[in-house]
Amino acid sequence: MADIEKLYNHRKPEDVLMLLVQASSMAKKNRELGWSDIQNTLHIGAGEAVIILDWLADNNEAHPKISKHWVRAGRAYVRNNPLPSLATMAWMLEVGKRRAFLIMQELERRKLIRIKEDFTFERVGRMASFNDLVRQMKVVAKRFHGRCEPSLLIRTLYIEPYTATRLAQYGEECLSLRWKNRPKDML
Q1: pLDDT tens, residue by residue, 112-161
Q2: What's 96's DSSP letter?
Q3: What pLDDT does 1 receive?
Q4: Residues 126, 117, 162, 106: is their CA dihedral positive or negative?
Q5: % of the chain beyond a pLDDT of 70
Q6: Domain ranges of the chain
Q7: Span 30-85, pLDDT tens digits
Q8: Residue 184: is its pLDDT beyond 70?
Q9: pLDDT, averaged across the chain
Q10: Torsion angle defined by CA atoms of residues 38, 56, 158 and 47, in that order, rounded to the nearest 10 degrees
Q11: Which residue, among 47, 59, 55, 53, has the nearest Cα to 1 in the 3D structure?
Q12: Residue 115's beta-bridge partner residues?
């Protein structure tokens, strides 16, 4: 439900309720609708449409679909974090709980993880080493013009904030990457 809070932060409560009611009536007619259908019908942005679609899926009003992108992102999350779980995966990938559950099931089907009773994962393969994370950071830095700040690494590598900070410091000190808007207390 944290994603719905983003809608409430940017719109009036009555506008959000109207969007949700309209989307719910759309879902009753077609349970297989996608975010682009919501975006085009309600005339809203793609980010808001994804949030509404995840809300519909979490409330069993629509069937969420997962793309190859989400499977790759889930794989990166599972590989790059020491203690992966369903709740943190949904938070890191910024998807609804139901879509995160479908990603988790797809990763299990591909034999990348084993699901435990408490919805934590047990990796089948090995976890990414620091060298693997550095290699991934170099790819991100190349795509983002030599930047390596922690917020960018969290968003692209799906790693926890502490690891992102350590990795960004290493990138700046050893690889001459830029850390945009670095806090003064970390200079």
Answers
A1: 999 888 777 788 888 999 999 999 999 999 999 999 899 999 999 999 99
A2: -
A3: 46
A4: positive
A5: 96
A6: 2-58, 68-123, 130-186
A7: 888 888 888 898 889 888 888 888 888 888 788 777 788 889 999 999 999 888 88
A8: no
A9: 86
A10: 30
A11: 55
A12: 121
Q: Which residue has the tokens 């060298």?
A: 131
User: Which CATH code fits 68-123?
Assistant: 1.10.10
Over residues 99-104, the mean pLDDT reads 87
Sign of the torsion formed by the C-alpha atoms of 89, 91, 92 and 97: positive
At 14 the three-state DSSP class reads helix
Q: What is the pTM of this model?
A: 0.72
Nearest to 156 by CA among 131, 179, 122, 133: 133
b/e map of 9-33 (b: 16 or more CB within 10 Å)? eeeeeeebeebbeebeebbeeeeeb
Residue 160: Cβ-neighbour burial (10 angstroms; 0-12, 13-18, 19+): middle
Total residue count of the chain as it appears in this document: 187
Strand (E) positions, 3-128?
113-115, 121-123
